Amino acid sequence: TKPYVRLDKNDAAVLLVDHQAGLLSLVRDIEPDKFKNNVLALGDLAKYFNLPTILTTSFETGPNGPLVPELKAQFSDAP
């Protein structure tokens, strides 16, 4: 087995996929509010460590809705 190799923040990025308002209510294994708070906390960590962060949506103008507003605010410079 390979020994554990610690992540290097210079070789890391954060990808946040489909954290849209309409999809939060579909999360079943954790309360939606807790899930949202966890996502926002991950965003805070990405900011703290200056990690490149990519936000994606599947269909922002459709039934899934836009990205969670708080997440958009955290990364207001994201395209």
Short description:
This protein is α+β, with helices and mostly antiparallel strands and 79 residues long. The protein has helices at residues 21-24, 32-48, 69-74, and strands spanning 14-17, 53-56.
Notes on the structure:
This protein has 79 residues and is α+β, with helices and mostly antiparallel strands. The protein has one domain (1-59). Helix content is 34%, strand content 10%. It has 3 helices and 2 strands; from the N terminus they run E-H-H-E-H. It has helices at residues 21-24, 32-48, 69-74, and strands at residues 14-17, 53-56. The radius of gyration is 14 Å and the shape is globular.
Which key phrases capture this entry?
single chain; two-stranded parallel sheet; 10% strand; globular
